[in-house]
Amino acid sequence: MKIIGHEKEKEIFGRVLKENRLHHAYILSGREGTGKKLFAKALAKAVLCENGAFLTDCKCRQCVLADSGAHPDIHIIEESPLKIDKAREISADAFMTPLTARKKAYVIDSADTFGQEAANALLKTLEEPPADTYFFLITSRYPQVLHTIRSRCISIGFGLLSDDEVCEVVSSNSDKTDDEIKAAVAISSGSAGYALYMLENMEKQPTFGKTLNPVELFFEIESLDDKEKVRAYCASLYGYLLEKYKRTGNETLLDFSNYLLDILKRLEYNVSLDIFRLDLYIKTIEVLSEKS
Ligand SMILES: [Zn+2]
Questions:
Q1: Cis bond leading into 214, ω under 30°?
Q2: 75 CA distance to ligand 1 centroid (A)?
């Protein structure tokens, strides 16, 4: 299992595992598509490994089972939102003896979607879990995780991937051309998952290719009511601009694509979406209505 990037987190957990100081519950938080779930699975595997291997090759029975994706003592829960019945089931199951390993691990995705009831069903188990049972919760919206859950877990924040790291992940998971990959990496803002999403969706965006209709464009941009939509939109626009630049050699298009990269970076901070959309609209009209 190869985890790209996150050297600091690897070091933290490597040390904790080696010194046998692993806490029983963690929340791994950070932007979507940066490899948190993969990391949590690697941790679950390390917890069960008979040789204490973490991110290194091991052929012990537990690791072989874990690599097959069917280890009966590694539970991956991806239900979103987590329903109360499932939360109760996890809590009850946690107290059963492991089936083949000496320990058990739970990887629970979307910790920010736990409602009050589901959270309540998990609280006691998170607080006083049975010995040798470990929980790795995952979220890309840490502030939305209920306080009661947060207070029972150690939080580890995962940073963004570098462009090289995103490129490494994307290249091994996509059959797109180098140019397309390069464009997706450039607008990924450190999320490999996002770059992959963009590669899959680059051709699906409608408006840019057509004759520009300012009213249509206005409503299209107006409908981008959250940052993810804005990112996706800018990303496909970016892909379109580069493509058009290659055909026409028009430098304005290249400038605009660089401008898009800049504003995508600004989006990481707290900019007003209204101002952002207005900027984007004006600039898009200005550039795309030019004859090129
Ligand atoms: Zn092993």
A1: no
A2: 17
